[in-house]
Amino acid sequence: MSEAADKTDDQSEARLQYLHEALDSGRMRRLKPLLHALHPAETALLLEAIPHAKREIVWGLVPDDDHGEVLLHVNDEVRSELIEDLDDEVLLAATEGLEIDDLADLIEDLPETVTQQVLRSMDLQNRERLESVLSYPADSAGGLMNTDSVTVRPDVSLDVVQRYLRQRGTLPDQTETLFVVSRYGRYLGMLSLAKLVTVDPERDVSEIMNTSVEGIQADLPASQVAKRFQDLDLISAPVVDDNGMLVGRITIDDVVDVIRDEAEHSIMSMAGLDEEEDLFAPIPRSARRRAVWLGANLCTAFLASWVVGLFEATLAQVVALAVLMPIVASMGGIGGSQTLTLMIRGLALGQIGYTNARSLLFKEISVAVINGLLWATVVGIVAIAWFGNPVLGAVIASALIINQLTAALVGVGLPLAMRRLGIDPALAGSVVLTTVTDVVGFASFLGLGALFLL
Q1: Which of 255, 253, 282 lies closest to 69, judged by CA?
Q2: How far apart are the C-alpha atoms of 317 and 313, rounded to whole Å?
Q3: Each residue of 74-92: b (16+ CB within 10 Å) or e?
Q4: pLDDT score of 381 more than 90
Q5: 185: helix, strand or coil
Q6: Is residue 247 classed as helix, strand or coil in its secondary structure?
Q7: 144-202 pLDDT, tens per residue?
Q8: What are phi and psi of 86, to 5 degrees?
Q9: Complete DSSP assignment for 65-79
Q10: Helical spans, DSSP H, in 233-356
């Protein structure tokens, strides 16, 4: 971790400690300067990091002007909790001044009465813009976009554009480029502000506009939007409908949120948790959610135990098998998890499809063979030295190789199969993989043991 990251972590920890000390001592006045100095995103992190009772107190000290931004930055569960406790007047005030795309993210969580008041308070143009964003799924380009695009025509000079911008007086936030459209609103290209102020003002927009960046389809998934920004190093990008008409723009700050949400989703899903779960959610609710995941794991554990039970007589006669048995399952689980992690990452980045899956499978099997032979030799030698039985060493070495090959096959094939079935591999992949490697590991080791040791 870099020095800057360490410093940031220290600052966050210091703020949290200061917050708890002030709450415990009852000196609320100490918190106001802190909360006024923080960015709404930093305030949101503090709210997520404290229990429910203290959260209500801190929220009461958050500046009114920051309410809307803070609600946007907290996770869904905390947001719902805060909205439930707030009066309609406070919620209505929190929506004032928000950008259209931000308002679209928040308004669906508001009570119906507040939503109607918000819509009535907006002018016709902004209401139509909001309805346009809300007409698309939240996890699509249309759901991410803002409708505050600044457009120019291709047949005007740069001097005319400059005079137009001076007449406007202001530009929307995160504006580093203007969008070039036809007379009928069809997207044609982009005109950067840098070129606008450095190129001969007598030249036409059509001469210097950038036509290499295609419009993003409004129904494109948010994950693909993030990949487009990453691949093309975009700061903003146009959003178009099926007819190529410009409907809005996406800016890098929205894409950063998408990337963060996907990272949280991947991490939390591997443990069967929701990335929007409140850190201090009520105990019964948290216990109920986790019970489902624990129950699923218990079923797979019973399956592995049932396989072991089939070889009860073998274990009773060769105790060494019981001692060494966890090694085979553990090594298969680790090898499979490595392959599974690479597959999930590759699928998320769009690097893996059915066209290159065969090549990837060959590569992972080759890696499994090399590592299987290497560690099978090591484990076999240890087993021989430990128990003085060469046959036992050969049995565990063979079982380890079999399980490594199985782990590679499942690690590559399982995510592809799950994706085809519409199941998130990050959510259920590790459970299925562990079950398979446990069952195959136990069955191969104990089966070979029963065959050659009895």
Answers
A1: 253
A2: 7
A3: bbebbbebbbeebeeeebb
A4: yes
A5: coil
A6: strand
A7: 898 888 999 999 999 999 999 999 988 988 889 999 999 999 999 999 999 999 999 99
A8: -100, 150
A9: GGHHHHHHHS-HHHH
A10: 252-269, 283-309, 312-317, 319-349
**C-alpha–C-alpha distance, residues 444 and 396, integer Å:** 9
Please give the model's pTM, rounded to 2 decimal places: 0.64
| Measured distance between the N- and C-terminal CA atoms of the chain, rounded to whole angstroms | 54
Residue among 400, 395, 406 at smallest CA distance from 451: 395
- Cα–chain-centroid distance for residue 159? 44
In the predicted model, what is the mean pLDDT of residues 121-141? 86
Mean of pLDDT values over 357-371: 90
Q: What is the pLDDT of residue 102?
A: 83
Which DSSP symbol is given to 64? Answer: G
Please provide residue 140's backbone torsions phi and psi, each rounded to the nearest 5 degrees. -125, 170
User: Domains along the chain?
Assistant: 3-140 (1.25.60.10), 151-251 (3.10.580.10), 283-453 (1.10.357.20)
| Among candidate residues 110, 104, 106, the one with its CA nearest the CA of residue 133 | 104
3-state secondary structure of 279: coil
Q: Which tokens sit at 133?
A: 């964003």
Please tell me the distance from the alpha carbon of residue 177 to that of residue 174, in angstroms, as a whole number: 9
| 288-299 confidence digits (pLDDT tens) | 766 666 576 667
pLDDT in tens, 407-452: 999 999 998 888 888 877 876 788 888 889 999 998 998 999 888 8
- How many angstroms separate the CA atoms of 146 and 99, rounded? 8
